[in-house]
Amino acid sequence: SGIISDNQGRSSGLVKSAGGGDFVKIASGTHSGTNLVMDNIFTSTYKIYQLELYNCVNDGGYLSMRGRTGGASGTSYTSADYRYRTYIVYKTSSSSTTTGESSWADDHVRACTWGCAADYPDNFTFYFDEPQSTSYKFRARWNCSENDSSRVGHGIGAMYLATSSGTAFTGLEFYENGGGSWDTGYALYGLKV
User: Fold this and answer.
1) CB 44 within 8 A of CB 146
2) Which distant-in-sequence residues (6+ apart) come within 8 Å of 38 by Cβ?
3) How does DSSP classify residue 63?
4) DSSP code at position 135
């Protein structure tokens, strides 16, 4: 385990350094239910956070996201201050197409365009830059798969919250927009810069 550290002058191939360091797993697990709430996950220890949602099945509707404030017993931020844009490129049997979602004043982020069935689960990678900072707006960028039986695709997205300065975000909430149950695995990592 570890990262590639040095390969110069070595006839045996790649050399790996010891594990640990500046890329640290903070939380991981599985979710099955309505709202996936992760509180007290953002601290000043890390500048960048990477969240993986994998084998995500939410065939009742699209995946939504909100930031949370308040630490261990946080509250979802539900004011209409979310500004986001997604761009999805996909291929069907007969055409290649683009689509996307956007809003300038929503109470959540629409992270993808469609839901996904159990045999075509989606995967997401989110990046959050200093979410606990009171100097910057809460913001994120992500990429995702957008697949089902009639199309294969890939999406990207970006968002920020038009909040006043001084709002520190300490957690996240994900949910299926129709309020239904959904499943995913997740892993959150912190990156020291």
Assistant:
1) no
2) 27, 68, 171, 172, 173, 186, 188
3) E
4) S
